[in-house]
Amino acid sequence: MTIEIKPRAGHGVSGGDGVGDLVLGQRKLTSRLILGTGKYADFAKMQQALDVCQTEVVTVAVRRERLYNEQGQSLLDFIDLDRYTILPNTAGCFEASDAVRVARLGRELLEQLGNAGAGWVKLEVLGDRKTLLPDPVGTLEACRELVADGFEVMCYTSDDPIMAGRIKDVGALCVMPAGSPIGSGQGVLNANNIVLCLERLKDGDPDYPVIVDAGVGAASDVAVAMELGADGVLLNTAVAHANDPVLMAMAMRNACLAGRQSYLAGRIAKKRYATASSPFEGAISYIPGE
Amino acid sequence: MRIKINDKEQTIPEETTVAQLIIQLGLSGKACAAEVNTKLIPKAKHESHTLSEGDRVELVTLVGGG
Fold it and tell me: Which of B32, B58, B63 is closest, CB to CB, to A60?
């Protein structure tokens, strides 16, 4: 089976790396990676990983006050609020109404901190605790309400292209289809669906941002998502739980760049049979069939 | 009076405001958002919002997440 990927000629060729910026609303981002801040062995490791992967946007969760970790440290002590835009999520919400509450609390916190992420939300309305797959009905309901409330919604969804279109229709800033279940490390399980999402969302609106969110296990998964034409990738566990999170963060940065460059460069078509790179003409050897 | 703070029952003085509660809990100066009975109370209203018997207060902050 061949999945046709159409690169956008002339797009993104600007700086030294030739990939251009990721534009999200009014913001232009040099990095196309968004990194989560959860699950790291310690905050110092997280801080190094964020630094080396050169992300400009990091996700956080909103939770009841427990103040500090066992060492008396708080996440915010390790995030440079002048460097990173904070993207608060609604992780853990299984009802649209809860997601809306959490989004508002996240906005309030970022307004207190004076961070550029105030008004952004990574919307997740989950349907099932075991798979963490999204509840499409709740997602749409919450997205609609948050957009009406002035939020710029970056919306987690499955790789269903119809649902992706619905989310865009209700005003999401960007759609974020999952490569595979959150934290599963299975990479992009259905490349065909991701391409269908991209086609549907970008039809007549080529700059509409689509970010593959969830499922990344290794750097190659990021490259695959970017080669399919995604505008960016959001990941957390693959870095945080790698044996060496800092080295993996570096690998993710390189894979994201390589994948984008490869997409823009335009891959060759897949063929059933070989095509020689060296000419047969002039060969001194016996060639079958000649 | 009895209220619930982050799902735990606590006794606080009558007429306590959200701002006073945050100070009493040692959270002043920290990033802390407040909700009373599922409604967000913006920081600008912490001083004017007086808590009532049976209120359910949520005090939240940012933690690591994906």
Answer: B63
